[in-house]
Prior knowledge:
Layout: E1 4-8, H1 12-23, E2 27-32, E3 55-58, H2 64-74, H3 79-85, E4 87-88, E5 93-96, H4 98-111, E6 115-119, E7 130-132, H5 140-150, E8 154-160, E9 163-165, E10 175-177, E11 187-192, H6 194-205, H7 229-234, E12 261-267, E13 274-277, H8 286-293, E14 304-306, E15 309-316, H9 318-321, E16 334-336, H10 346-364, H11 377-386, H12 414-435
Parallel strand pairs: 1-2, 1-7, 2-6, 7-16
Antiparallel strand pairs: 3-5, 4-5, 8-15, 9-13, 9-14, 10-11, 11-12, 12-13
Helix pairs in contact: 1-10, 2-10, 2-12
Amino acid sequence: MNDIVNVIGAGLAGCEAAWAVAEAGIRVRLYEMKPEKYSPAHKYSGFAELVCSNSLKAARLESAAGLLKYEMELLGSLTVPCAKENSVEAGGALAVDREKFSDAVTAKIKSHPLIEVIGGEVTELPEGMTIIATGPLTQGAMADIIRGLCGEGLSFYDAAAPIVTADTINMERAFYASRYDRGDADYVNCPMNKEEYLAFHEALINAEKVQLKDFETHPFSVYEGCMPIEELASRGVDTMRFGPMKPVGIDDPRTGRRPYAVVQLRKENREGTLFNLVGFQTNLKFGEQKRVFSMIPGLENAEFMRYGVMHRNTFINSPELLNSDFSMRSRPEIFFAGQITGVEGYMESAASGLIAGIAASRRLKGLEPVKLPPDTMTGALSHYVSDPFNSGNFQPMGANMGILPDIGVRIKDKKERYGAYAQRAVNSLRGELERIGGKCNS
Length: 442
C-alpha cells in the first residue's frame, strides 16, 4: 500500500501507534528527536523510556492496571509482551528492567520493515495522517504546532485534586447540597466542627510533600489559582475557611446550622460514580494524602481512585477536541496519543497510542472502526477523554475501576467485585473482536 502514517514521538504511545499501523501493513514514518535532543526528564537514547518508576502497576486481572494490560494484549500490544519478557521481581506488580525494556521495544520498532525512523526535532507538521505522541514535556516548536491545532485547549501543568468513589463516601456524615440552595444539590458536602478543622489543618501543614524536579517548579510560582491545598493552609489557620473550605451558604441538615468548615466534592464523571475534592490540588505524597484526607468527615473509609498531583505536564482539553478514537473532531486526519491526551500513567499512555494506531490503520484500509465497549478499561478511558461532559474541569485520569459503568449487582467483597468487572470487560472486548473478524489490524 502507498499510504503512510506519520507518528511523532517514540515514547510508549508513539511506539504502540507505529507498531499497530505497521502490523496492519501500512508504512510508518516515526519521528523521534532523541538522541539529538532530550527533554529535561529523558536520559536514555532508546525508545519507550520509563522516566520515573520502573513499575507498570498491578499484574492481576482483577485490578484496573492488570485489566488494562490484558485488554492491550488482546488488541495486539507491543509494549506489554516486551515488559513481560524483561520483567523483574516486584511482588504482584509488573516491573521491568527499564533499559532492557527500552532496548527490546527499540529493536522491535527498528527491525520492522514498514517503519522508518526519522531523527531530529519536528518543527513542522508532516502532511497526511499524523499521530502526535510527543509526551507530557512537549515544548518549543512542537508545542507551538499543538497550540495552533488546539487553540487555548492546552495546559502546561497538571494540578489535579484527589478522586474517590461515590459508594465509599459515608453519607451518614456527609450530605448533598448546593451553596445557598442554588440549582440542583449536586455537591457532596463534608462538614467539620472547629475541633475537626484544627486537627485537619495541623495534619495538613505537617504532612510530607513530593520533592519537585527543577523543571517542575515554574508553574507553581505563576498559577496562583492552582495553589496546593497544603500551601494555602500554611498561610494561616483560617485561610482554607475563606477558600475551598468556606461554609458560607451551606447548612448541615442534621443540625440546621452552618458548619465551621466544609469540604465539597463534585461529580467527576457523568455517571456519578466518581467525585473529586474541590480545590484540593496537592503535592503531598500519596500515602500522606490517604492519611490526612481520610480525616475529613465522610471520607474515613473512602476509596481513592486517583491521588492529587501537581507537576509539569502538557495536556490538551481532549473532551473538547477529540473523538473516542483519539482523532481530532476538527481535523480527523490528526490523532493525539499518550499523556498529552489526558491519560495518566505508562500503560494508559501506551493504550491510547495503540487505540489511535488501530483507528488510523483501519480508516486507511476502509474498514469499520473498532468500537471499544464502554465496560472495558480501554473503552472507558477513551470515553473519559472524549466526553464533552468532562471538558469544563478536565484533568488527567489513569485506569481505575471507578470509570467503568456499574455492574448492577451489589458485591461486597472488593476482590470479587473487581473480578466481576474484569470478566465482564474481557467478555465484551472478545465479543467486539469476534464481530470485526478476530483481529483489529486486518
